[in-house]
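Box 3.1. Reading complex inputs
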Amino acid sequence: MASNAVGIEGLPTQLFVNGKWRDAADGRRLTVDDPADGSALVEVADASVDDAREALDAAVAAQHAWAATAPRERAELLRAAYELVNSRAEDFARVISLEMGKPLAEARGEVLYGNEFLRWFSEEAVRVHGRWMQNPAGGSRLLTMKRPVGPCLLITPWNFPLAMGTRKLGAALAAGCTAVVKPASQTPLTMLLLASVLDEVGVPAGVVNVVTTSSSGEVGEALMADDRLRKVSFTGSTAVGKTLVRQSADNLLRVSMELGGNAPFLVFEDADLDAAVEGAMAAKMRNMGEACTAANRFLVHESVAQEFSERLAAQMSALSVGRGQDDGVEVGPLIDEKARNGVSALVADAVDDGARVLTGGEVPQGPGWFYPPTVLVDVPEDSEINREEIFGPVAPVTSFRTEEEAIERANSSEYGLVAYAYTRDLTRALRVSEALQFGMVGLNTGVVSNAAAPFGGVKASGFGREGGFEGIEEYLDVSYVAIPL
Ligand code: NAP
């Protein structure tokens, strides 16, 4: 525990291993920066592979007893954690906003959303069941039961430091699995704060271990090479996800992969344009565009493309950009210099290809990794910005002529996480929803995330689902007993 620039008394900055806070064995620390000005916020312990192995030792040692606890007991612990996060919501929001950059209002939204996974999975913990059925051929019975898969490695990204953790941890704990959590090195504080909440409500030592490290590759590889680990759940980039899937092969781990996206946002000629612009703002600007669900490609029917683009640009240019903790700020900085340079390069490339800038497009002077809300029109379909995940506040708009063309272009991406479609025609809405090759569709809405819904993608966006009734299944094995009768 340390006093720090975050200004939260008792904010943990050490590793959480086997129910104890401790430094890395070799004393190394890593610095957490404020993306609003690049200054150092605080240092946290920087775990080595040996530290991480100790965390896995603890998770393995705790697994048997945790799996044997009554589901109600696990449910009550998760519920108590939900209540405690609620009562400390402002602390969580402040930490999220400071280390990640998002405006406080959005950070409060993440606390509400992320905490819902603890409540949802507290309710799911008591609903794990099997089945009893007659052999179709007669003469015997089939009994199935579900068991926790065992110790898990949970790797989370920086963009939603609480929610990406709770939707894994909630499900894992509810199912009876223990875990080693490895948060992103740029945003480790939120997960450490969550660990302190889980500890305070009485989650037993070793059930949850948090390892903050700048050696993510080495730590991940070492833990996955240990055959006591039984599962890896990862949220992050497709490139790292592919590496982890390869590494998981030797021990045939259960694997869940929540990877990148390239969401199309379709606006048909019969759409309610007010609703479409409002949805576009939500789908594009949540988290400054640094969301896997962010609308990446706006495909708008040619008859409404100009009006839609102008209205979107008017709303985008009215947003106030600044430090996330300042009053009235709606758009914070991007996570780091590399991220901002990447967004800036995609815009420059699109402009080279012939795109026009309706608003934004200029990197501001001064400290911090800010990028202005930007709308581009006349973006050629094959421009890189339409193929890459932008991960920033930039909306490239192109037009289409027919429904078939819109669907074909929407599907022509290696990614398949989420698509959005705006239309008032019910038949078209259903037809388009079926035709879109994505794990999720936002139909006349710019927000799909919901703890009660199965979140996840297809194709290069990964596999597995988080949240919903499906989320807990990722942490359960099914076994079956054949019974002659
Ligand atoms: P990232 O670079 O893939 O990192 C994600 C996590 O993996 C971090 O904790 C990172 O640690 C760790 N990591 C990196 N290399 C590793 C390795 N070789 N072995 C083990 N762990 C490793 O992704 P990001 O930039 O943080 O996150 C943005 C990406 O996440 C975007 O593509 C976004 O679409 C995706 N995302 C997907 C979802 C979804 O649900 N589908 C949700 C949110 C974000 P370090 O911080 O130490 O590098």
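In summary: The first helix runs from residue 49 to 68.
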